[in-house]
Design brief:
This protein is of the alpha+beta class. The protein has helices spanning 3-20, 42-52; strands at 62-68, 71-80, 85-88, 95-100, 105-110, 113-117, 122-127, 130-138. The chain is built from two helices and eight strands.
């Protein structure tokens, strides 16, 4: 190795060392909590969410999953009574009411709970004033046996 290569390596290390010790307070470290984003109006946020995500009951019956008190609970919510109600379990089940707010589809009177369903598959289950996160999906999209006949083929499904 020539002396020129050794000199260049030493100079490079010296420069790196000088750059590493710049903590004189003259620059500001970026911290994620300081990040600011453009604030859109609630109406704009709702329009974007509705355009890009699925609305509850848009594809019919739904499965709702929540973890209440350490146990996974699954509920089936089905539009019924010619669209005037939401029924528990199926079209002949107990009927609850559906009301809309700007952000939520609120199902009351089923399973002793209130379901706050948001666009895109999330929301909350309310019981005795306590809110627990939930996830929902349309039943035809693979959340249980569904309402359609099973597709059986001669081929394995492994």
């Amino acid at each position: 190795m020539s002396w020129q290569m050794v000199a260049m390596a030493a100079a490079g290390l010296a420069l790196l060392g000088a750059c590493a010790d710049l903590d004189d307070g003259s620059y500001r470290v970026f911290e994620p909590p300081e990040a600011t984003f453009a604030t859109a109006s609630p109406a704009w946020d709702r329009a974007v969410e509705r355009a890009l995500t699925e609305a509850p009951f848009a594809k019919g019956p739904m499965a709702v999953v929540a973890n209440e008190e350490g146990e996974i609970d699954v509920y089936r919510l089905v539009p019924c009574r010619d669209g005037r109600a939401i029924c528990a379990g199926g079209p002949e089940g107990a009927a609850g009411t559906l009301r809309r707010t700007p952000d939520w589809f609120v199902v009351e009177g089923l399973y002793g709970r209130t379901f706050w369903l948001g666009y895109g598959g999330d929301g909350y289950v309310e019981r005795a004033g306590r809110f627990v996160p939930l996830a929902w999906n349309a039943r035809p999209l693979g959340t249980g046996p569904g309402d359609d006949p099973a597709l059986e083929t001669a081929f394995r499904h492994d």
